[in-house]
Amino acid sequence: MDNTYDVKELIPEFFYFPEFLENQNEFNLGHLQVSKELVNDVILPRWAKSAEDFIYKHRKALESEYVSAHLHEWIDLIFGYKQRGPAAVEALNVFYYCSYEGAVDLDALTDEKERKALEGMINNFGQTPCQLLKEPHPPRLSAEEAIQKQTKTEISTLNLFQHLTELKSFFIEGISDGIPLLKAIIPKNQSRSFMSQGSPELLITVSMNYVIGTHGWLPYDRNISNYFTFIKDQTVTNPKAQRTISGPFAPGLEITSKLFVVSHDAKLLFSAGHWDNSIQVMSLTKGKIVSHNIRHIDIVTCLATDYCGIHLISGSRDTTCMIWQITQQGGTPVGLAPKPFQILYGHTDEILSVGISTELDMAVSGSRDGTVIIHTVQKGQYMRTLRLPCESSLFLTIPSLAISWEGHIVVYSSLEEKSVLKDKNLLHLFSINGKYLGSQVLSEQISDMCIIGEHIITGSLQGLLSIRELHSLKLSVTPLAMRLPIHCVSITKEYSHILVGLEDGKLIVVGVGKPAEMRSGQLSRKLWGSSKRLSQISAGETEYNTQDCK
């Protein structure tokens, strides 16, 4: 702050990499000259509880509204009108003359000593970027201004994470009356032409009786509906037209959402749990099996796909995990490669849960004996085993886990009923490098879980829909009680709604509802080329009477 010759910059590690602040390898870094104190971990500011907390808050500060409001001033200094001339002098933004672009023509120098001296100065002082702007850069819109601008558009959705206190649950007619709804998801990369921007996307459902539904979905659009538009697939209640997953499932296997994965373009359904140890691939457009992959030597118990839709990971009772490449033609998924891309070893008991991030090169698996292992995706290399803090690992299982975009691993552990320990259900948080960051005791049994940004969404067999902060595992808002066991949770790609599948086959849509004026004839507009009758369309205007959990 005081010495103009002492110039420092914050390298990217200050915003994402807490490990660089700790001497984890216990290197001998010597002693301080005056106090003789041993040099070890970086001493953090008082407001940081740990290296992870420091990085998290530091990045929050970088992405804060204050920085956004002053970002244009930084652009003016580095690339803009304050880089040179009187404005630069007034802003104390003047550097050594050799560092400026075009200040010295090295090729024109004939004296070799002078040339080397100038090259040394440039290497020492660095180079000032090119001046791109000669006028002040306009300020960025504030978050409030951006939201106001967005809500003025014809098609606009509200991010529910910005309005958590306003969440409401809307009732949808039963997808499968009395039969648990195991999967309800809106794949995020559905291909839509410019001409069909107003047409619905597909909402895929799978019920306990293995019936598949491809419903129509449109989020909040002031032209279409007060909250959202849902067009029920009429084949799910028609025994003659129903599409079902073929082949019997393994006897005694619990059928859960972990057995089903939908490709990101809503064209394929991957299913596991079959009696012949196979992974089946069904074309949702053709309604038939297109691939039958048998590589595991025991029942496949869980599936997961990565954020890009490139790889599928499977876990099995044979204690192995396999990473499969999703084959594509012209950028469209068409099936699974005949052989797995990687086979991952290390477990000694049945795999219960898996997660994969191709971008971060990590595959995570949890088994019935409480073991959680991280492998690399590209080489299939064992990286580490996560140690869960538990009084006894004798009856510990890992029914569910998830990976965040930044590599945080959330593990749900449960103790079997025969255990006498009090805290039977816990959430655990680990860093991308396997460091244990904290745990949270739960009062319910989690049935499904997903991570979106800095939030964890969980559904439980006790009927609680909970949203928690990723870094603290604490509740962001009072849980919504659905009165019946929850079997699946997912979120729409706009983060406008949470889809919840219940024990009785009903689909609950949770969102921030923002009514707008209904326009005449909106429900009779053509969708999918045919005019749907009002009885087939639910506009989400009936609020589902949930109970607040105290």
TrEMBL record:
PROSITE patterns: BEACH, WD_REPEATS_2
SMART domains: Beach (SM01026), WD40 (SM00320)
Gene3D superfamilies: BEACH domain, YVTN repeat-like/Quinoprotein amine dehydrogenase
Domain BEACH: 1-140
Record keywords, A-Z: WD repeat
WD repeats: 344-385
PANTHER family found in the cross-reference section: BEIGE/BEACH-RELATED (PTHR13743), NEUROBEACHIN-LIKE PROTEIN 1 (PTHR13743:SF115)
Protein name: BEACH domain-containing protein
